[in-house]
């Protein structure tokens, strides 16, 4: 195997695992591999183009004499043109394993895609991962360089497990972040305000609904960067809830119900509902990281964020019936809803009878309940309230 000293190995592994945490570090990792193998290009193909969809592009990160060297970019070529398809997973191969030198030299793929970038000698491996499918790794040299030999193959095979782990960690983190984003959007679509605070009540993050509530200053507000209530008695209770949440973070809280309170609003509107829940710290990192808690706020008089399109599909309503149902779920009377929609009261009553017939309810209160408890708000697009 080619010589790889301890410092080189440590630097390369550090770069690979840094890249698993942040895509910006792939450039460093691939550049080190390029230098190690005396290559002109090193490429990771993360997603192949869909041959059935002309608009679908593949995804790759590559280093070398390229415009976007080191960046994760889309690339427009059809993988059925390359002779390197359908290879056994995790087996290092070169172009010499697939064809004679003459066949490779005359290959349309080499002439069309490789010659313009002085790519001639190719060493490749299709890396299988448990959660990311197959990812393609390619190392190339110009025609003037020596071909890849047994020592190159052996070194590539030696590094393969580390490259695989790095790619799989990156995929798992991306998936976890995507799931977190979906849950966060779902919370927002249900009109639940969320505020992330530290143990002193300082606000670390907030979603758009929380921002709207706090900016109104009606019950909850921001004072010196801290979450506070409008009235001292409520503020003392909020402080107690926050303190209790962080104390719970240091002991077993399985089965314990999060603390909750109602917050009086100076406007006289129905009180805000508030729940404070600690974010458990990982058992593997005791004493590390910033303790935090999540504050969930629900405005009982806030307008429904139900999607018109989803509500229509759920209940089989017409656009006019859907619009009336949403106005009623926002707390308006039939007369107020008719006025808001600029329709006659008799028309509104006719719509309501049709809604009752289609939904199977008999009272307006039941209609409001099924709308508020349906998945209609989850079909709302990502937008501010």
How would you describe this structure in keywords?
single chain, 385 residues, alpha+beta, Beta-Lactamase, Arc Repressor Mutant, subunit A, six-stranded antiparallel β-sheet, five-stranded antiparallel β-sheet, 12 helices, 13 strands, DNA-binding transcriptional regulator, CsgD family
How is the topology of this model organized?
Blueprint: H1 6-21, H2 26-36, E1 41-47, E2 58-63, E3 72-75, E4 93-94, H3 101-105, H4 108-114, E5 121-129, E6 133-141, H5 150-189, E7 192-197, E8 203-206, H6 208-216, E9 220-223, E10 226-229, H7 232-248, E11 259-263, E12 272-278, E13 293-298, H8 308-315, H9 319-329, H10 334-341, H11 345-359, H12 364-372
Antiparallel strand pairs: 1-2, 1-6, 2-3, 4-5, 5-6, 7-8, 7-13, 9-10, 11-12, 12-13
Helix pairs in contact: 1-2, 1-5, 8-9, 9-10, 9-11, 9-12, 10-11
Organism: Marinobacterium stanieri
Domain HTH luxR-type: 314-371
Protein name: DNA-binding transcriptional regulator, CsgD family
Spatial strand sequence of the major β-sheet: 3-2-1-6-5-4
Q: How does the helix and strand content classify structurally? A: alpha+beta
Number of domains: 3
For the record, the CATH class of the largest domain is Alpha Beta
Order of helices and strands: HHEEEEHHEEHEEHEEHEEEHHHHH
Uncertain segments are: none
Please compute the radius of gyration using only Cα atoms: 30 Å
Number of helices: 12
N-to-C span: 61 Å
Mean pLDDT: 83
Strand composition percent = 15-25%
Q: What is CATH's topology name of the largest domain?
A: Beta-Lactamase
According to DSSP, the number of beta strands is: 13
Largest beta sheet, briefly? 6 strands, antiparallel
CATH superfamily of the largest domain: GAF domain
Q: Indicate the CATH architecture of the largest domain.
A: 2-Layer Sandwich
Q: How much helical structure, as a percent, in the residues?
A: 40-55%
GO molecular function: DNA binding
Keywords: DNA-binding
Protein name: DNA-binding transcriptional regulator, CsgD family
Domain HTH luxR-type: 314-371
């Amino acid at each position: 195997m080619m010589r790889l000293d301890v410092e080189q190995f440590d630097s390369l592994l550090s770069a690979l695992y840094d890249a698993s945490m942040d895509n910006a570090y792939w450039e460093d990792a691939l550049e080190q591999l390029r230098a190690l193998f005396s290559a002109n290009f090193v490429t990771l193909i993360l997603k192949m183009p869909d041959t059935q969809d002309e608009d679908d592009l593949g995804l790759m990160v590559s280093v070398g004499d390229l415009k976007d060297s080191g960046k994760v970019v889309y690339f427009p070529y059809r993988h059925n043109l390359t002779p390197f398809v359908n290879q056994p997973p995790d087996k290092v191969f070169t172009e010499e394993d697939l064809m004679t030198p003459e066949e490779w030299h005359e290959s349309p793929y080499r002439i069309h895609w490789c010659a313009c970038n002085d790519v001639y000698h190719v060493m490749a491996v299709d890396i299988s991962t448990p959660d990311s499918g197959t990812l393609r790794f390619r190392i190339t040299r110009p025609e003037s360089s020596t071909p890849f030999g047994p020592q190159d193959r052996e070194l590539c095979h030696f590094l393969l497990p580390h490259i695989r782990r790095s790619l799989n960690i990156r995929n798992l983190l991306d998936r976890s972040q995507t799931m977190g984003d979906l849950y966060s959007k779902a919370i927002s679509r249900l009109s639940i305000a969320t505020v992330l605070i530290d143990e002193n009540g300082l606000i670390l993050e907030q979603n758009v609904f929380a921002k709207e509530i706090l900016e109104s200053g009606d019950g909850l507000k921001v004072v010196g960067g801290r979450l506070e209530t409008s009235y001292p008695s409520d503020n003392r209770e909020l402080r107690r809830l926050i303190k209790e949440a962080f104390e719970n973070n240091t002991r077993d809280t399985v089965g314990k119900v999060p603390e909750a309170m109602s917050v009086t609003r100076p406007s006289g509107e129905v009180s805000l509902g508030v729940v404070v829940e600690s974010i458990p710290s990982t058992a593997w990192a005791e004493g590390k990281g910033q303790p935090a808690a999540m504050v969930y706020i629900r405005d009982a008089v806030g307008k429904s964020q139900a999607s018109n399109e989803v509500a229509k599909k759920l209940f089989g309503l017409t656009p006019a019936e859907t619009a009336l149902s949403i106005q009623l779920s926002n707390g308006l009377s039939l007369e107020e809803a008719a006025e808001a929609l600029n329709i006659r009261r008799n028309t509104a009553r006719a719509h309501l009878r049709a809604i009752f017939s289609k939904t199977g309810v008999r009272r307006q209160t039941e209609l409001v309940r099924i709308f508020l408890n349906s998945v209609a708000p989850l079909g709302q697009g990502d937008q501010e309230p």
